[in-house]
Structures are given as structure tokens and as C-alpha cells.
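DM between two lab members

TW: hey, do you still have the Endonuclease III entry open?
JB: yeah, one sec
JB: this one, 394 aa:
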Amino acid sequence: MGERAPDGSSKTGKSAKKAVGAEGETSPAKKATGKAAKKVTKRAENPAGKPAEKKAASAAKETAPAKRTAPAKKAAPSKTAAKKSTPAKKTAPARRTTSARKAAVAKKVKPAGVVLPAEAAVGKAAPVKKIAVRPPGGESPTALVRRARRINRELAEVYPYAHPELDFENPFQLLVATVLSAQTTDLRVNQTTPALFARYPAPEDLAAANPEEVEQILRPCGFFRAKTRSVIGLSKSLVENFGGEVPGRLEDLVTLPGVGRKTAFVVLGNAYGRPGITVDTHFQRLVRRWQWTDETDPDKIEAAVGALFPKSEWTDLSHHVIWHGRRICHARKPACGACPIAPLCPAYGEGETDPEKAKKLLKYEKGGFPGQRLNPPQAYLDAGGKPAPPLGAA
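TW: and the structure you got?
JB:
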């Protein structure tokens, strides 16, 4: 059907198509109008147009390095942390060096003669070295060695027959006799041991002995109960640990009941021929009187005096000093006027200096009296010595 025109006329289909075509011609205008509206909208959003896009691009380029530097920003805390940790590493050695300096200063300012606990464990030899190089009398170490050795040579001429003043026939008898000689004289021991060894000649016999019977035999020696325990105990130890034989080593001897270094060196020096210094009461008194050392501990005296002499002379040196202390250089009244080493003695004058009065103070063979051994060596008898009387003799 046809359409009517606005003036009331009707239009055919063709005219309607033409009208439609006219409308189609006007559509590009509508499109243009739409495009212009879009451009206006875009300009409203970006007033600068293309320059804004360039600015946006440049801004994007500027932000790109920012993105690249972002890891640097993240790394910045690690750098700061490293900077913070760096002083800590530097200060740590500084603290150590400070403590080390304090320790060094502490060592430098340690008072002389003070022994720290660490030094006291280390071993006993350190005081020995100091003693050896610092004579108590103020003389030089060389002068002390020369004077000490000259004294020993003089005493060797005075006592060429010096020997241990205990009667013994084997190492076991010497060991037991030396243990019994504590707190008594060698004479009393020599008068007691014949009955003991006649009844108990071997370690096996004494180990199985009745303590009460042994006590009755040892009663004259004093401290007989303690000495009985010692001799029976060491006999058992010899049987159980050493096959009934007296060991020839210091380390083994000192493990026996009642045996110390002094007793061990007596046995080693006189039964086995191994050098050792016997530090008894006479030895201690004389070496201090002669100013060989000012030590009072037996072990330190042994080390100090041993440093003055060759090791091969230690056993004879012990005999010379002990014999001189028993015969001439007494504890209370030394016979200074009859002393053969008076010119070498710094303590000369402490005793009687008159020769005639000093001779009356001499003992044993030097004074014409019997010695301490019941069976002394022949050399002692040839030098005018006399054997000691047996127990109970007038």
C-alpha cells in the first residue's frame, strides 16, 4: 500500500524508496556529527590533543626507569642494613683487641712472686728454674755452682767411706729398713731389723704375718703400729703387683704404702745404682745453712740442689751431706772450729769456733765412737770406724 504525503497525497513505493534513499544520504552527516562529538569528548578529556599523548608517552618513558630503579629501592634497605652491620663487624675485633690488651696489661702488671692458679697446676719445675738462677745468698749462679761442688769435693775427701747407714742384704731389706727409719735413728733400726728379717725374710712371709707379732718386734723403733701397717702393706703390694720383687722405678716405688720419694731414692741409689737425692732432715738443714737454696719443701729442695750437680753425683752427694750433718754440722751446736769446709760456709760462727772445744762435739768415728751399722763396710772399718753394738748391749 502507498503512503500519504503530508499534503494529503499518496506516494508510490518508488517514491517511498527515494525517501528512504534520502534518509540514507543524510546518514553520513549523522556519522560526521557523531565523529565530531567524539572528538569534542576526547578534546575535553585531553585538551592538549596529540601533545598530551606525547607528554603521556614521555611520562611513560620517565616512569620506565623508575620501574627499573625499583629493585634499587628494594636493595636500598639491604645496603643500609649492610652499612649498619659493617660497623658491628668492625667493632667486634675492636672489642677483642681491647680485651686482649687488658689481658696483656694484666700479665704485665702481675706482681712478682705471685703464682696464678693456672701457673700452679702446670706443673712444679718452674720454681726450680728460678731457684737455680737466683741463689739466696746473692752470689751469681756460676759462683754458687762452683762453691757447692767444691764443698762436695772436700766432703768426699773427709768421708771417702760414706755409705748408707742401714744394714741390708737385698733391696727388700733396704726398703723395709728405710721405712722403719722414719722418726728414729738408723742405729735403732739396725738393732731391730735382725729379728724381723730372721722371722720374715721375704715379702711373702711378711705379707702373711700376724700384725700383733710384728708390732712386738718393731716396738723399739717407735710408732710401731703405723710402721707395722706400712711394712705389711708394702709386702702385700709387692706380692700382688710386682711378683714379690722390689721394683726399680720411682713411679712404682712411690705406690707402695709408707714409701715416698726419699725412701724411693735410697733404694734406687743404693740397691740399684740409680742416682737420686735423699732429702732427710740433715740434708735439708745443711743445704739451707750453706745457702744452696732457701726452699723448705723437700721436693723443691731436691730439684734446686740437683740443678747444681751432675746427676751421676747425686747419690754420693746425699751421703756426704748426711754424714757431715750427723758428725760435725749439728743442728744445735755445730762444731765450726773442727769443720773442714769452714772457709766455704756462709754460716760459719753459728757454732763453737774454738778448735779444742769443737772437737768435743764430734760424733761417731770422728769422735772415736761406734757408728750406726752393726755390719759396716770394710772401708769404714779400715778408716777407724767401729761397728754399732746390738740391741740390749751395754
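TW: got it. Residues 50-108 form the longest helix (59 residues). The first strand starts at residue 3 and ends at 4.
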